[in-house]
Design goal:
Blueprint lengths: L6 H10 L1 E4 L5 H14 L7 E2 L4 H6 L2 H6 L3 H22 L2 H11 L3 E9 L18 H4 L7 E6 L10 E5 L9 E2 L15 E2 L8 E4 L7 E5 L4 E3 L10 E8 L19
Antiparallel strand pairs: 1-9, 2-3, 3-11, 4-9, 4-11, 5-8, 5-10, 6-7
Helix pairs in contact: 2-5
Amino acid sequence: MQDLLSEDQVSFYDENGYLVVDNVISEFECDYIMEKMNYHADENFSAILNPDRFEFLLAQSYEKLNENDNLPNKVDYILKCKETSEIIRNYLKNKNVVSILEKLQGRRIIGLMCQMLYKKAGSTYAPQAWTPHQDNSYIGNKNGSYITTNLFMNKATKENGSMYVYKKSHKFGIFDAEDRPSYREASGNNPGRTIDIKNLEKFDKIDLEFKKGSLLVLHGNCIHGSYPNNSSIDRPLLSCSYIPKGEEYSIGYNAQRKEISLS
């Protein structure tokens, strides 16, 4: 697994605050994950926090449970939630991903949380565009040790809502930001603890494109955001968060981050 990253890639991440690694999982695996997650999506294809935790997945898809009009079907849906949560937990613990992150950090890491972002073409949240923000703004880790990964389940371009980063912005700590709702926010509102545009002018903005099965690794302090999906192509991704063992982090009201062993 250590051959998955070259020393040049490690240096690139250290210097720029992000790294794209292709072919982390297969296209078949991407389709398998989406088949499972689409089963639990609501009519708006709203984000699902912590689908790797049975209770979170069930709580955010209760409408699906209530669609079943008899007890055996309700029980079957609950069992499907349990199955899906176990599948997603396995991807949070994916050996390729863990190997990449531990090589970048040089330390043992733990999982904290994950989130399914559908950005399905034509859905309520397709036009959503995350504003420039830092993930560590939510965590408050003083050592800048927090890492977010985004595993792309389909190809992503600017047209279907891909992401952008501000190169080398991770070297300047946490910026002041405007707090905004960032979970199932009202239609027409863009999430993200928004950083003032004046603080962005010193950095180069880089638009990123991804192949199906690619992984974006983000330093917690790297400023980034996303574009709206105004195309006919879905842009789903599984976002997972990690931190070296022993580092401090905020639990969060909705996120309810907690230490998850990856072994």
